[in-house]
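User: Could you check the structure of this?
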Amino acid sequence: MKKFMLFSLLAISSYSFAQESDTKKQDMNVSYYFGVGANVNSRYAIDDKLAASGMPETVKTTPEFIFGIDYMGKKGSLDTEFASQFFKKSNEFSTSSGSSFAIKLRGHYNFVNSAKFLFSGGLNLAYTTNDFNLYASNNQVDLNALGTSNASYIRLRNGMFYTGPSIAFGLKKNDKVSLRLNIGYEFALITGKWKSDYAAVSNSFTENGHNRFVMGLVVYSNRTKYKKD
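Assistant: Sure, the predicted structure tokens are below.
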């Protein structure tokens, strides 16, 4: 898995720098960006286990908070992005909650890169860690007698590697501030089994076949321009 991820990261980096090498005298803009987005997930395999146990299933659509660094040339761009999301869902008896953290690379070719508008397309690579928590609603903890407290709590985690096509639409106000909408569809190529740091997990399984639609609206600022030799 690590070798595959390394190869993929090198491939997308090589693609981006190859686009820039064709125009040695072009400017390259480097900027930070931040924004919000959403992940629309296909069904997790663990949802079948949750439903069979009478526990709330995961949430299909989750909000996402985004921060990244963008390297923009005339013909192409490369983004390094960090994103996090959270969900919580309860019923009468129990609660399911979860958080995810993703590290993403996005390599794009600029089909249109004018003074006011950007349209680009390319490939996303992402590694996401999931942390799911399951607990009963009637948990009770007595701080004077912790050894006899009634508490039912399960914590599970896994890692998933995604890749897929993406496109972006950008509106440029000036060299310092711009707005961009990123849209992509990512396929889970490699998924780790569900594990726990607090218990031995029997009958674990992977989330093979899981896919997601991703979108994010981000604002670029602190743009710095570098002149290539």
